[in-house]
Write a structure and sequence with these properties.
With 367 residues, the chain is of the alpha+beta class. The protein has 5 helices and 25 strands.
């Protein structure tokens, strides 16, 4: 059945709205009000096809600019304001808003797929749907089966960003995906002397896939790194990180990161059901940098491993750069291998953000 029109009544029965870029270009303006209404209700909206990102943003861009807590785009020249816009090689884009009563702006999820082959678009849609449900539950309750946040206010979410690697025959061999949840609290000293604290909760998924001709690919190594640019802005201070140190052959990853006066922090616990992991933590507080490296032992193919490190940055108002926003870059890498060894790596994911107490702005991305 080919549906040429949609209505508020028909979308009320939907769990996700998936629209082709061709349809948006031809009929998007006619049905823009229905699409925006779907977003206001919290329904995830996904565009697929050539230049999918801008096809959707041409219809909902003004609404996104006025209501989204997270905007991905290019500078307008008016301060730090952005105009929603994406590269033309985006072939799938999901945008989902989480309605909050009386909120000026809504927490917003962006999931962007760049240069994904047409044969993998169905996977992208299913992945976006899964990630939306995970993020929705996490935002609503402040916790999941393995994550508990205390004493911080939810700011926003960036990601998921995904990069793929392929075997010699063009078959999908491995994927990494990165998202970050941001939280905030502050301590009032005087009207001009507030200490701000921002929590980064990094979520990094790595998945190896079986291929018909090259055998099964599995993850070998994964890394996550945060750069708070302390040498440039001394007021941006790396305050806490977790997990720290290193460990080998672990099937349980758990940590409790308590900051400030013992009232705020994050508790994370994860069980590795296939194989085990080694990890190593490296910190350079003078530069405001930290990095986690994970090595996989006997991993499985077609299984997603989720790595969830966290850190807290303090903004010290007595030093340059000690007022919001927190400016930082988050990177992730992955390495996959088959029976020949570990050699196949997707491109690095990098996202630079300005984090404010009530919103997060994406300054740049690289995938």
């Amino acid at each position: 059945i080919i549906i040429t029109g949609i209505s508020n009544q028909t979308i009320s029965r939907c769990s996700i709205l998936v629209i082709s870029s061709d349809w948006l270009e031809n009929l998007g303006n006619e049905y823009g009000g229905v699409i925006i209404n779907a977003m206001q209700r919290g329904l995830p909206v996904m565009a697929i096809g050539p230049d999918a990102g801008n096809s959707l943003l041409m219809v909902v861009g003004n609404f996104i600019a006025s209501k989204a807590a997270l905007i991905v785009g290019i500078p307008t020249g008016n301060g730090k304001q952005l105009r929603p816009e994406l590269p033309t090689n985006v072939v799938a884009l999901e945008i989902a808003m989480i309605p909050i009563r009386n909120a000026t702006r809504y927490p917003t999820i962006w999931e962007v797929y760049v240069n994904t082959p047409p044969t993998n678009i169905t996977y992208a849609v299913l992945r976006a749907w899964k990630d939306y449900n995970t993020a929705r539950a996490f935002q609503q309750y402040g916790s999941s089966l393995s994550v508990n946040i205390q004493g911080f206010n939810y700011v926003g979410h960036v990601g998921w960003y995904a990069t793929n690697t392929y075997d010699w025959y063009g078959n999908l061999a491995g994927q990494q995906a990165l998202s970050v949840d941001f939280y905030y609290t502050f301590y009032y000293i005087t009207a001009k002397n507030n200490y701000y604290f921002f929590l980064n909760l990094v979520k990094h998924d790595v998945t190896g896939f079986p291929t018909h001709l090259s055998g099964a690919f599995t993850p070998c190594v994964a890394t996550e790194a945060v750069n708070g640019y302390t040498s440039k802005w001394p007021g941006q201070v790396l305050f806490y990180s977790a997990p720290i140190g290193g460990s080998s052959n672990q099937v349980t990853i758990s940590y409790e990161e308590i900051g400030l006066f013992g009232k705020e922090g994050v508790v994370v616990g994860e069980t590795i059901t296939q194989g085990s992991v080694n990890w190593n933590y490296l910190s350079n507080p003078i530069e405001g940098q930290d990095k986690w490296t994970w090595t996989f032992n006997n991993p499985s193919t077609d299984a997603t491993y989720t790595l969830v490190p966290a850190d807290i940055f303090q903004l010290n108002p007595n030093l340059p750069g000690g007022q919001p926003p927190l400016i930082e870059t988050i990177n992730s890498t992955a390495l996959f291998g088959n029976y020949l060894g570990c050699f196949n790596a997707p491109s690095t994911i990098s996202v630079t953000v300005d984090v404010y107490p009530t919103s997060v702005t994406v300054i740049s991305t690289s995938t």
